[in-house]
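Demo today. Your pick:
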Amino acid sequence: VQLQASGGGLVQAGGSLRLSCAAPKRISVTNRVYWYRQAPGEDRELVASMIGGGYIDYAASVKGRFTISRSVAENTVSLQMNSLKPEDTGRYYCHVGQYWGQGTLVTVSS
């Protein structure tokens, strides 16, 4: 496993979680970094991206609720998720350069 994702869990609707993805030093988070998610029975979808000098974009469904960030010093990528909804349930994956994390499960109960 190249990237270690953590921070998932069970949370009630309206709650918050912070996902983190730690990369080994040879995989720099100054690359393009992304968070994807995959709900049961669904295709993987792009949730948030950070490219180059800091261009950031979000899926319309999470805009205003999720925030992607990175720490170059710690070589980590994070996803702060607020005001969670049941439809945010899924396995979340970080993607840095050409590498993928193993995913961390987020379950939002109604």
About this structure: DSSP finds no helices and eleven strands in the chain. The first strand starts at residue 4 and ends at 6.
